[in-house]
Amino acid sequence: MFKISEFSKISQVSVKTLRYYDQLNLLKPAHTDPYSGYRYYTADQLFQLHRILAYKELGFSLEQIRRMIDEQIPLEQIRGMFRIKQHEIQSIVDKEQVKLVRIQERLDAIEHEGKQGGTHDVVLKEVEPQLVVSYRQRTCFRQIPEMFRQLDDYLGNAGRTSLSQTILWHGSEESDEDMDIEAARLLADKMPSRPPFAVQRLPGIPLMATLIHHCRTTSRCTASTELALWIERNGYGMIENEPRREICIPHEQTGDPEAYVAEVQIAVERA
After folding, report:
1. What superkingdom does the record give (predicted)?
2. What does the pLDDT look like over 197-243, one tens digit per residue?
């Protein structure tokens, strides 16, 4: 047996906490000396202590834990509860990671505020009509990789090769989580449509303001601000009802599957 001080060192649980668990009948010592009152514990009691600490991690109160121990919940059920908690925490971590990315994007945008000119060259050019197969959905921009995965699965099942990747930004009326986004792949020749995948010909644009930059499909496009400044300062205006286009080419050097060299395209006309 181990004295309470020794048991505390082994378990890394304070003596005060062990005494409190004793008072609550949550973890009674294996033996208490009737004369000195010293508490003694066995090594097997570490397993029970581990369960108590595990239940605390899951958010249960000590009274709830005492009842659960009395009920002798099977080990597999405990594992299941931990898996659920693990998924909940992972979901929170993922959401907070997205917030960190957004904060960095905002900081980058603020850093570039007020700078004259830009770091990219804007080119005006004519864009020919393009045959594409697309998947349009109201969602958030972070779902773009998943949209292309579904689109590429459809092309693969049809025996077609995935060509140039294009994102069409139709806009958003209500919120960032309800954006009208269309993921498209260039087609070499026509193929039948099958909802929700549509084969269509994107119209040719006589005058397209374009800018090439590095980006990630899961992040906001900060280069659009630079392009918008150029359009405004050079006497142009956007053509109404024409979505902003973004042609993406994987950027293999970064090792990031969501990193791209992208050409932002905005249909314009003389203001």
Report:
1. Bacteria
2. 999 999 999 999 999 887 765 555 667 778 888 999 999 999 988 99
CA dihedral 162, 165, 166, 167 (to 10 degrees): 110
What is the model's pTM? Answer: 0.58
Burial of 182 (0-12, 13-18, 19+ CB in 10 A): buried
Cβ atoms within 10 Å of 42's Cβ, excluding its own: 13
Tokens at residue 97, please? 């990671």
Average pLDDT across the chain, whole number = 85
CATH of 2-73, one of 3.30.230.10, 1.10.1660.10, 3.90.1700.10, 3.40.30.10: 1.10.1660.10
CA 4 → CA 23, 30, 32, 211, distances in Å? 14, 11, 10, 70
Rounded-to-integer distance, Cα 78 and Cα 60, Å: 12
Is it the case that residue 248 has pLDDT exceeding 50? Answer: yes
